[in-house]
UniProtKB/TrEMBL annotation:
Pfam families assigned: FTSW_RODA_SPOVE
Keywords: Cell shape, Membrane, Transmembrane, Transmembrane helix
InterPro entries named among the record's database cross-references: Cell_cycle_FtsW-rel_CS, FtsW/RodA
Species this chain originates from: Cerasibacillus quisquiliarum
Membrane topology: Multi-pass membrane protein
Chief place of localization: membrane
GO molecular function: lipid-linked peptidoglycan transporter activity
Full protein name: Rod shape-determining protein RodA
Length: 394
């Protein structure tokens, strides 16, 4: 298939991916030069994750979208089973890191060379099954009714809550937020009656408002009422009130210092002066800012906007041909957007700190491979669109 359709290569998507990989490796290489990170070889490991991810991307080009549509339910439930297995695993297999039990990282207490984070891969299974469910529903109910819309909404909520039920037990609030955001975007684009959407939005906003009020007003009760860990409560309190008595913003203070110290054009690769904990992963944008300055940081944000615009146009273009493919594009768009918005937002202080990586840039095996699988899916959709366009105009 790849050889047959080699002239349908999507050069814009390839160039965008190469640029992201280049920025990521340069940023991590720059962070590697900090004395505190020396000897970890993060850049070599990241390059290996990218190469493995590209391998998955290539394999995906052999897949048929209709077969993928039918298989989406199995992919989704397999990913949920991984989440259940993680939840039930003892610490000898899944050792908590910073309060979060999110990785298979050991065998009988011995560290694995690659930690596997099921919630990252589950996001792709979630997007696939959600896309399949919405597209099949819309094909079945050509004319939407209030009843059919409520049925679709119930399906979407059920598909969303199942993985969240286990992810929330991992103390991974950030990933739960990602699932909710993706589901929200898919609901908006599913054609469900606006009265239902507005009612749902009011209910969701009310819940968030009450939850936020409880955290701010009764922080000592938040653990019991909302099931939050103390460090999660402190992050929200520190974000809401910088003068909070239990202020613990050491990491944020350093990241904003690093970001600002880059000034207009940055200090250059390998010339970092501000040590930021987890700089190569969750706080890589601060390293990009210090290395490449305001100009470089702005260009990275622009690159994200270009990718998001490309995915939006691709989804709109393929909608009439394959609703399943269109919703894959919309779902992946939502995934990239919420990760970028939350991660960059926490770096500059407009969002509370979470463990959400900056997709396509942050260091991490599971994150990179899952993101590359998603990229491979939208690339496959883009190739299919080009094939169909060529067929129609011949």
């Amino acid at each position: 298939m790849i050889k047959k359709h080699s002239h349908y290569m999507q050069y814009d998507l390839i160039i965008i991916l190469i640029l992201f990989i280049s920025v990521s490796l340069l940023g991590i290489y720059s962070a590697d030069h900090m004395e505190q990170y020396s000897g970890n070889n993060f850049v070599i490991k990241q390059l290996l994750w990218y190469l493995l991810g590209i391998g998955f991307l290539v394999i995906i080009q052999f897949l048929d979208l209709d077969q993928l549509n039918r298989a989406s339910i199995y992919i989704y439930f397999f990913s949920v089973l991984l989440l259940i297995a993680l939840f039930l695993s003892p610490e000898s297999i899944a050792k908590p890191i910073k309060g979060a039990k999110s990785w298979f990282n050991q065998i009988n207490g011995k560290p694995l060379p690659l930690s596997i984070q099921p919630s990252e891969f589950a996001k792709i299974g979630f997007i696939l099954f959600l896309s399949s469910t919405i597209s099949k529903h819309k094909n079945k109910f050509a004319t939407a009714t209030l009843k059919s819309d409520i049925i679709l909404l119930a399906k979407i909520i059920g598909i969303t809550l199942l993985p969240i039920a286990f992810i929330s037990q991992e103390s991974d609030f950030g990933s739960s937020m990602v699932y909710v955001f993706i589901a929200g975007v898919m609901i908006l684009l599913s054609g469900i009656n606006w009265r239902i959407i507005i009612t749902l939005a009011i209910g969701g906003a009310t819940f968030l408002g009450v939850a936020f009020w409880i955290i701010v007003t009764f922080p000592e009760l938040s653990q019991n009422i909302l099931g939050l860990e103390q460090y999660q409560i402190n992050r929200v309190l520190n974000w809401f009130d910088p003068s909070h008595e239990d202020r613990d913003t050491y990491q944020f203070d350093l990241s904003i210092m690093a970001l600002g110290s880059g000034q207009l054009f940055g200090k250059g690769i390998g010339n970092l002066e501000v040590y930021v904990p987890e700089a190569h992963s969750d706080f890589i944008f601060s390293i990009i800012g210090e290395t490449f300055g305001f100009v470089g940081s702005s260009l990275v944000i622009l690159l994200y906007f270009i990718l998001l615009y490309r995915l939006l146009i691709l989804g709109m273009k393929v909608y009439d041909y394959s609703k399943f493919a269109a919703y894959i594009c919309f779902g992946y768009l939502s995934l990239i957007f919420i990760h970028a918005f939350q991660n960059i937002g926490m770096i500059v202080g407009v969002m509370p700190i979470t463990g959400i990586p900056l997709l396509l840039l942050s260091y991490g095996g599971s994150s990179i491979m899952a993101t590359m699988i998603g990229y491979g899916l939208v690339y496959r959709v883009a190739v299919e669109v080009s094939i169909q366009d060529d067929y129609l105009f011949k």
